């Protein structure tokens, strides 16, 4: 920059593009993917009622969305049997995480997360000048004891935990999460990312008073509701904290069709139940494919399965690269020892057929490599 | 907040909700508006090709959007005959303004704008701890000389100017804007908001080298393209500055249907031309309605018209309130002497018919008030 320098925090951030989408990989290779199994998207798709509602509203896209998100917020409040003042809707969990970090973290303050957990949260913490302290996973799961200990030691403002976990698919009982709240040091807020909650067993979901000021929960329409491209997420938390978002959020930032589609999706409980059944079957199928290739699928409470490739991270990275060359988009954990796994999203039969066909070839090539 | 305090900057911000949408007003009054003429939305609507593209892609909303915005970015580059590296796509101009402020402004640094200009820009400046210096309008237009003088005096990092202007509809020749760049102090960046550029005469659009590091331009699909609810805007600027957005933006923040719809809208030049004709006719119609009521419509290079109500701000505020009571949603400038006007968005005939019917009643009631 010859003329204008960046502000100090952005100036300190890496200039590289931090996220690579599958479309970029396709453009680089010149070949579209046959199966898109890398982003935990839900290929079973959105409720037909959501599609219908979006289609019906398409010609009205000339109107800004209601900045208050009134209808969706009230429907979510009824869904969770809480007051609407406990809910903030935003542009996906990613957007809400950025706002939450900005709202609560002063530059230089510390945040605790697990080494290998959701990178977008870390991106936002760095992006607002926060300091990240990472604790290791334990038995392929985030470690509540280690998170709490680190929060106490480092006076963490925020403690991030995803339950169920991404990228491993593991989960803790809700009672364990609730117990964390009593152990959390004064001044720390638990950021409980429940993006995959709808796929998890009921016992994984803690019972938390929405006014409890020790925790904020994050939910999304991107996973179980099959609307990742719509960008609708929501936070549940104490009224004062939720109201704080209004000080800084982009009030007219929501897409109007997304708002309308999410409302219709929420009202289609049957589709959600059917999605859950299909995801469960797809998890079993991925496990069977893994087993047929001498690999081990880890238990999952999400719409993806971590498949242990049975060797060091370098081998799993070769498997992933070979799969990509065969038209299969998957991703994998970035940190050892979880990086012995590849992470495969649940999907309809044709995509899993393609994965089943490609996996033995990819393994064979990776073993030769 | 008993437990968690906000970070210092958000803690210093007002707790009130800064923006009130028409839906909130409707819920308060219990009556839907008959004519939505307050947000400069484009009721002539989006291109049917954009609608068709969005409808066709609705079932694929389970996919995240391409975080690189490749196809739309390249189409915009071709449209403007510049390299795609000069373009950053984001969630409307509002979203891009927030990112720009965050990217360039350190807390406590100064920004110059006009008193009465776009409030969302001011919201973002305050939201990132910036200091706002405002200069008065001159003859119902933003005053380039005053902006430049203030930028020099206060070492402004950013200088905001909308051309054509909102809320007055006035415009400066592009040559005047280009001349500002040579007068701009070292270290200042001109933020040139061209949200209404497609409605303006060609002479209003400056010819600027996209690599010129003294200016960033902002455009949108919300106005002429009739897609306000989609949330698609873009910035044009020097490569280093544009690349800076990648350090902080929400990479997976775009709605996938919006991306696809905007691309189709861009390719429908005929619809845009027809929209321009309809907007021009609607401007004339609003002026005629004003004249028939003894009021003066100000010249406009946008899709709205500032109508001078011929008295102090208090009278215009009463007219606005009476119009709302009659089902007509309009807004008005917030600062004297521009607040003698109400601001009426161009719209199809039925909405302007309703405005024409309501205005004499509203004026009469306001005069009695």
TrEMBL record, chains A, B:
Pfam families (alphabetical): Aminotran_1_2 (PF00155)
UniProtKB keywords: Amino-acid biosynthesis, Aminotransferase, Histidine biosynthesis, Pyridoxal phosphate, Transferase
Cross-referenced SUPFAM superfamilies: PLP-dependent transferases
Boundaries of every Aminotransferase class I/classII large domain copy: 36-359
EC number: 2.6.1.9
Pathways per UniProt: Amino-acid biosynthesis; L-histidine biosynthesis; L-histidine from 5-phospho-alpha-D-ribose 1-diphosphate: step 7/9
Protein name: histidinol-phosphate transaminase
Taxonomic classification: Bacteria, Pseudomonadati, Pseudomonadota, Alphaproteobacteria, Rhodobacterales
């Amino acid at each position: 920059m010859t003329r204008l320098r960046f502000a100090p925090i952005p100036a300190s951030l890496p200039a590289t593009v931090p996220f690579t989408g599958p479309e970029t990989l396709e453009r680089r290779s010149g070949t579209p993917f046959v199966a898109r199994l890398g982003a935990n998207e839900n290929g079973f798709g959105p409720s037909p009622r959501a599609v219908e509602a979006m289609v019906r509203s398409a010609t009205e896209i000339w109107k800004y969305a209601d900045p208050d998100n009134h209808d969706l917020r009230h429907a979510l409040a009824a869904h969770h049997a809480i007051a609407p003042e406990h809910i903030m809707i935003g542009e996906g969990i990613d957007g809400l995480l950025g706002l939450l970090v900005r709202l609560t973290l002063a530059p230089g303050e510390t945040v605790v997360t697990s080494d290998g957990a959701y990178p977008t949260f870390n991106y936002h913490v760095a992006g607002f000048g926060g300091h990240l302290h990472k604790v290791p996973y334990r038995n392929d799961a985030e470690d509540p004891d280690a998170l709490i200990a680190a929060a106490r030691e480092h006076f963490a403002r925020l403690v991030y935990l995803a339950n169920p976990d991404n990228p491993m698919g593991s989960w803790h009982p809700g009672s364990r999460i609730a117990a964390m709240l009593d152990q959390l040091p004064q001044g720390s807020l638990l950021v409980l990312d429940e993006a995959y909650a709808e796929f998890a067993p009921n016992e994984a979901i803690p019972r938390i008073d929405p006014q409890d000021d020790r925790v904020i929960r994050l939910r999304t329409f991107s996973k179980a509701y099959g609307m990742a491209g719509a960008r609708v997420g929501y936070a549940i938390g104490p009224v004062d904290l939720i109201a704080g978002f209004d000080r800084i959020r982009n009030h007219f930032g929501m897409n109007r069709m997304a708002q309308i589609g999410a409302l219709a999706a929420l009202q289609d409980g049957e589709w959600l139940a059917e999605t859950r059944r299909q995801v469960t079957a797809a998890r079993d199928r991925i496990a069977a494919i893994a087993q047929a290739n001498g690999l081990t699928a880890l238990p999952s409470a999400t719409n993806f399965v971590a498949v242990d490739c049975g060797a060091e991270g370098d081998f799993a990275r070769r498997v992933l690269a070979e799969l990509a060359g065969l038209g299969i988009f998957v991703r994998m954990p970035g940190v050892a020892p979880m990086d012995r796994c590849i992470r495969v999203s649940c999907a309809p039969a044709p995509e899993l057929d393609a994965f089943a066909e490609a996996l033995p070839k990819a393994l064979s090539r990776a073993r030769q490599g």
